[in-house]
Design brief:
144 residues, 6 helices, mainly alpha
Length: 144
């Protein structure tokens, strides 16, 4: 059975940085930091005056772990399946969930709950329950 490392300090620091970034984005632009909304509005035919800001935000998501690696000397390790069918299915499910849920974990879990949105509390509870169920099934039922 796979063991997940318990990392409370880096997780706390990461959470603080995500929250700080969300607050700064809201203060500077009045926008909620939802990654699915940012990415979906980078794809044509959507067009407004926020393209550069959205691009910078998404680029930061890609550059931040590389910067961490460069400054800290420790590469980021992430285990992802190499099964293309599973990757495609997961991507479709995540996209479907973000569209039907009117947002993603960052928009609902970080920003929506902080604003006291009932819809965000329900969405975040659904994300968490689905994640816990998936881990349980893959580790203990399917033997992954």
């Amino acid at each position: 059975m796979p063991v997940t490392e318990f990392t409370p300090v880096p997780s706390l620091i990461g959470g603080i940085l995500i929250g700080l970034a969300a607050v700064l984005l809201m203060a500077a632009t009045g926008r909620i930091a939802g990654v699915s909304g940012f990415v979906s509005r980078l794809v044509p035919p959507y067009h407004d005056d926020q393209f550069a800001a959205r691009s910078a935000f998404v680029a930061g998501l890609v550059v931040a772990p590389l910067l961490y690696w460069a400054l800290g000397g420790t590469p980021i390790t992430q285990t992802v399946t190499s099964n293309p069918v599973l990757l495609i299915a997961a991507g479709i499910l995540v996209g479907f969930g973000a569209v039907t849920g009117s947002g993603c974990t960052s928009g609902h879990g970080v920003c929506g709950m902080a604003r006291g949105s009932v819809r965000s509390f329900a969405a975040t509870a659904t994300f968490m329950l689905t994640g816990m169920t998936t881990v349980y099934l893959t580790r203990h039922v399917l033997g992954g």
